[in-house]
Amino acid sequence: MGQKNKKQLIPNRRRLTILEVAQLKREKQAPFTSVFDPIKYIEQTLPKEIKGFDFDYWSEHPEFQKRPERRAFVHFAEDGTIELVVREEVMEGAYRGDNEYRFALAHEIGHVYLHRTKARNILSRHSVGSSDQYADDPILEYEANLFGGALIAPPMGIGVNSTLFDVRTRFRCSNDVANKALIDADFWRKQGK
Predict the structure, then answer these.
(1) How far, CA to CA in Å, does 125 sit from each of 38, 78, 120, 163?
(2) Which of 12, 38, 84, 192 would bridge 105 by S-S if both were Cys, CB 3.0 to 4.6 A apart?
(3) How far apart are CA 174 and CA 153, in angstroms?
(4) Cα distances (Å, whole numbers) of residue 118 to 81, 123, 133
(5) pTM for the predicted model, two decimal places
(6) Which whole-number Å values give the CA distances from 65 to 68, 87, 129, 184, in the listed order?
(7) Interacting residues of 184 by C-beta distance below 8 A, sequence separation 6+
């Protein structure tokens, strides 16, 4: 098994795999030097790539009533369909270019790609109607953050002398995403990429 970094919840091998998958998915929409549009990706790319994928912008969804802090979620159903549900204000914010909302959508794209097999396995083993009970797993959340961050600010597109300001400006992202992208870019280079 790959070595774990003290600051991470996953082995370095898994981290590298997630960054590589994010790179492949990002290349479908935008070069590494441009700004990633998560709305366009959700509306155009995911329905073509993922059989049974659907999305909805709906602030009145019962899940949002139960958990008001949620901005969006992915529901993996027993029949294999995957539904991404997003609060309307998140979509509106992302349309306006709000960095926080753009990242929230990229994070959910990460769940779609990284966790659909795991969710289906959980569903088939436990015969539950929903995988939502695993929504707050810290490892799954960490992985979705890593993937979403790499979509927004791809480490493979960040030069060795890039600064926080460079990354924030180039990829229109928050300080937090830019800082993590710089760390991931260093990790990427150390892996010989």
Answers:
(1) 32, 11, 9, 47
(2) 38
(3) 10
(4) 14, 9, 13
(5) 0.87
(6) 6, 11, 19, 36
(7) 19, 146, 149, 150, 155
